[in-house]
Amino acid sequence: MLTRRQFLGTATVVVGAGNPQSEIRNPKSASLLILTTDQHRADCVGCYGNGIVKTPAIDRLAGEGVRFTRHYVQAPQCVPSRGSMLTGRYPHVHRAFTNRYRLSDREQTIARVLNERGYLTASIGARPFAPNNATGGFERIFGDPEHEAALKKAGWTGAKVAEYEAKLKETFQAHPVPWGEELDSSSVTADLAVEFLRQNRGRPFFAQVNFHRPHHPFDPPRPYAGMYDSAEFPKPHRRANEFANKPPEHQRALEGTAGFDLRKMTDADLHRITSYYYGSITLTDKCIGRILDELEKLGLAGNTLVVFNSDHGEMLGDHGLLFKGGYMYDQVLHVPLVVRFPGTLPAGKLVEPFTQEIDQMPTLLALLGAPAPEGVQGRSLLPLMAGEKAKWDETVYAEFPATKMVRTRDWKLVYYAGRPYGELYDLRSDPHELDNLWSDAGRAAPKQEMMARLANWLIASHDPLPPPVDAPEVR
Known about the structure:
Blueprint: H1 4-10, E1 31-37, H2 56-64, E2 66-72, H3 78-87, H4 91-94, H5 110-115, E3 120-125, E4 140-143, H6 144-153, H7 162-170, H8 185-199, E5 205-210, H9 248-255, H10 267-297, E6 304-310, H11 330-333, E7 334-340, E8 349-351, E9 355-356, H12 360-367, H13 382-385, E10 396-400, E11 403-407, E12 411-416, E13 422-426, H14 444-460
Parallel strand pairs: 1-5, 1-6, 2-8, 2-9, 3-4, 3-5
Antiparallel strand pairs: 2-7, 6-7, 10-11, 11-12, 12-13
């Protein structure tokens, strides 16, 4: 294990575009394995304080690596979030604003950087930028067709699944799949990942294993569908008439999201949904454990940088909402992040300052001894892992095309472009974001300060590419 002095001496902090960095110790061209779940909120993992959900594999990984307790994504939707994860750039810069857009092939992703360094790169499981077909530079992409083929081979097509599909439309997308665990998307993804490791153990690789779960539909196979039937889940954070002084977008989401009127959701409905959500997490954790065990069996664990993360969270009844949307509640922005690199990173360490999704790319490249490309806006997290946090700015940002969010430890502000309304929360007295103080005259000073932070960010975070060209002085 590196000492703190040695650790800081081998890694130079990446603070912005184009800054040089020395290479950290990179034994035998270490490989990179990213395990990504979809729609997985931070408080639904055991090592993040949830005493109900069973996640032994993720918890073990955290005990052997570094866990970031306050990690925030840049967007509450898959494509823009994953774009920021893999490019280290904000959504308004990489321009994949929502799931409607694909990441440009001009963007330098982790995969493209490592391709140039001789790594085999692969995305396994759900498409890397689902629901669209962008590749992000991965040389191999597989998972979805293989899962579909497995279901078809087992006869799960057409009329045989019609009843299940009909039930999803009646139950807020919460109904078990009729097939067994071995045909679940998480199981098939793990099968493919294990086989990839076996076939490519002799060369450096970067594999991102993309689990679709626990994203809706909430439909784990049995026994996971019944695993948490008798659990007593935390009460959702919501209040009657809560949206009376909130942006109308929230009320519209309550009245219709993914085809459902969420005002009709009963406590029994929410209990079933939460039970299946937890069951999906536990099944996926089991699959993550299989992959980690295979790394050990193949002798790869000591030379593989392993990351567990998610692209965004899930409302799960908080504020009366389900799924995800254009709102900026912590439930959809605060996600888990665990990084393990034996012999290089400390085991069981907690990093408590706020960090952002764009920080992952330069951090992982630094650990692999690869310089971050020009245009990266994230900061290396290596100093935080080494205990250096005195000068760390804990402000985090998230966005949708016309909605921007800025959050500190004490305050959150959400700005809606061209609208007379917005959101302001005093997180010290209202950590669950129930009381919107946007129009409170007594909070004018913190509102102005947060607006200034947001304006400064938007100005400072313009696309640094292409870099400006110096002109010779005319005499």
